[in-house]
Amino acid sequence: MTKRAVIPDPVLDIEQIRKDFPLLQTPVYGKPLVYLDNAATTQKPQVVLESLYNYYTRYNSNVHRGVHFLSQQATEAYEQARKKVAGFINARHEHEIIFTKGTTNSINLVASSFGKKFLQPGDEVLISAMEHHSNIVPWQMICEERGAALKVIPINEQGELRMEAFDELLTGKVKIVAVTYISNSLGTVNPIAEIINKAHAAGIPVLIDGAQAIQHVPIDVRELDADFFAFSGHKIYGPTGVGILYGKEEWLNEMPPYEGGGDMIKNVTFAKTTYNELPFKFEAGTPDIAGGIVLGTALDYVQQIGITAIRRAEEELIQYAYNRLSAISSLRFIGDAGHRSGAISFLVGDIHPFDMGEILDKQSIAVRTGHHCTQPVMDFFNIPGTVRASFAFYNTRSEVDLLVEGIEKAKRMLM
Ligand code: PLP
């Protein structure tokens, strides 16, 4: 395996941090892996892997049901994890934290439950043109069911929300606004505090898709005054299969259950069922117990490093990547927002993104190519897809240099 020099990071000891991640030490095609697909999923630190192993080897048991020792231990650890999540995003109450399968599941829960209760024919749901499919399709489905209309805040050529259009779209018909904090395909950071303030001034609640934000920026749901905030465990160094819906108590209490089954009930007869209190009303069936507990471990890990230090390191790295990529002739950025985080999308000459992805892959550089589950964004730019490099705090400047070399090589081969 050839050794690559790691340029020391000015903010965090990245070289040391990288040792926490076994997969970052695992070669691909005999060369060190350059993992730049963090917006799709992040790699997992050793403590997270150990936490999973510990759960299944030491206290695997079902939660909230058993009086026996193991069940009590599992329940305690699971509820402790809920507490950690509440602390991590500064929720007022632990029961405002609902364990779900991930961002997609969290948004489906709100769209379905909120929609059934609050959407009437003629009402509107307002999303944006840069949403991931998981913040489009659930709303389309419930709008169709309820006779409501889906409205879309447009974007400009830089891939930023057109806020003057948002002001106009924010009419009395809108019952909920659902927008992403950070775009997964463009890297745009949206002005969500402004969006929430304006929506609230009009008496409208806001759901924030935090899938690309939770791992990059500090989140304080109380300061933001978000009504709902959704994210996935696997994008913040935790496991797949678990995610979070934060919802304000007053909304969650008003909303009907999303799914029926065990745990979400107080009393069942064939004549009538009464529902459990928050958060259990929205947690039917055996949850991903291990996933919840291990997500708590992942959040501990992030907190230990510090999300503010992570943000600083990533901002510097992204600026470096942006500068280096800007110098490549015939490379154009797709989305060039003033405020960006996480991902950089681009195309080079007329090279198809898939071909670029394949050539980079053979150099052990993992990037994403395609529409990134944001087809309307691709339609807006009239392109089939992009090449997306997405960063985590464990990425280095030397990895960016390798990406640049890889792109130059692909250019020599294909242009
Ligand atoms: N929203 C955004 C902005 C995303 O980037 C993603 C995943 O990439 C999702 C939602 C869906 O997340 P998940 O597939 O973990 O449910």
Question: Can you tell me about this structure?
Answer:
The protein has 415 residues and is α/β, with parallel strands linked by helices. It has 2 domains: 14-39 and 306-414, Aspartate Aminotransferase, domain 1 (Alpha-Beta Complex); 49-303, Type I PLP-dependent aspartate aminotransferase-like (Major domain) (Aspartate Aminotransferase, domain 2), CATH 3.40.640.10. It has helices spanning 14-18, 46-59, 69-89, 103-118, 137-146, 163-169, 192-201, 221-224, 249-254, 289-305, 307-326, 353-362, 375-381, 397-414; strands at 34-35, 97-100, 124-128, 149-153, 174-180, 206-209, 228-232, 243-247, 265-268, 273-275, 331-333, 343-348, 365-366, 368-370, 386-390. The strands form 4 sheets. Strands 2-8-7-6-5-3-4 form a 7-stranded mixed sheet, with helices on both faces. Strands 11-12-15-14 form a 4-stranded antiparallel sheet, covered by helices on one side. β6, α8 (221-224) and β7 (228-232) form a beta-alpha-beta unit. α2 packs antiparallel against α10 (289-305), α3 packs across α10 (289-305) and α12 (353-362) crosses α14 (397-414). The protein starts with 13 loop residues before the first helix and ends with a helix. Pyridoxal-5'-phosphate binds at residues 39, 102-104, 132, 134-135, 180, 184, 209, 211-212, 232.
CATH class group of the largest domain = Alpha Beta
- Poorly predicted segments: none
The radius of gyration over CA amounts to: 22 Å
Mean pLDDT: 96
Corresponding CATH architecture of the largest domain: 3-Layer(aba) Sandwich
- Hetero groups bound? pyridoxal-5'-phosphate
Count up the domains: 2
Could you estimate the helical fraction of the residues in percent? 25-40%
Listing every helix as H and every strand as E from the N terminus to the C terminus, the arrangement reads HEHHEHEHEHEHEHEEHEEHHEEHEEHEH
Structural class: alpha/beta
Number of helices: 14
Neighbour order of strands in the largest sheet:
2-8-7-6-5-3-4
